[in-house]
Amino acid sequence: MPELPEVETVRRGLALVMEGFVIKGAETRRSDLRWPFPENFTARLKGQKILGLGRRAKYLLADLSSGEVLMMHLGMSGSFRIGKDSANTVPGSFHHPRSEDAKHDHVVFHMSSGAKITFNDPRRFGFMKLVPRASLEDDALIKNLGPEPLGNEFDASMLARACKGKATSLKAALSDQRVVAGLGNIYVCEALHRAKLSPKKRASTIAEKSGVPRASARELAEGIKTVLKDAIEAGGSSLRDHRRTNGELGMFQHNFRVYDREGERCPRRGCNGTIRRIVQTGRSTFYCPVCQR
Asked: Which residues does 219 contact at the CB level (< 8 Å), separation at least 6?
């Protein structure tokens, strides 16, 4: 599933042709994705200006002039393709072609910018819903989310307070969207390696009993911010389905230190460890048992 850097990369690509423009028309080519589309979905979108295109965790949020917010989620395999109504072309060059199977093109937006934006989702785990702006923070998908790891308020103190008293592992805690929003398996593994912390370490150990952050909390908070910023700069990570909106693959997978590198030597200078794979809460964890303590 795309994680925060992939979703942010998509947001930045879509903002160029959606933000500040009017939805001239919208099409749905089936009745549902993960869930049914909202009642009168396309009619409620037509003629609305997109005032801003934001992101909360892994959700894209289009702020509409109607007072509603269009919430979009990529799911496991969802992606957006930007073309032009006049010629139906896609800007940018493809490193790898997208699926041309029209049965997976489920939603199309026709924008006043001249862009034709198509949402393609073979597995249909993505969704789109409309939420009143005034009640967005109370929506069931939003209200329990933790802080944005790239937000100004996210720091070691906030992370330590969230992990205080937790008996779960650091890997499990960081994967909990209530602790930190938007992190997933890849970037949790990568951040823990940067912080030299074992994924098996108890989450509560990064905080004093009073909740004051230890040095490990500061290193981890910095590791999270650094790996996310690096991944966004590289356009995200492409493992299976992620593409940027221009069709190009994200490149951060070439910078993985531990993820999917089982049996390889640890890249940390001076470390002679070998990357190990274990399973935690049903997901693969990659780490170096020598330098991550």
From this structure: 194, 195, 196, 197
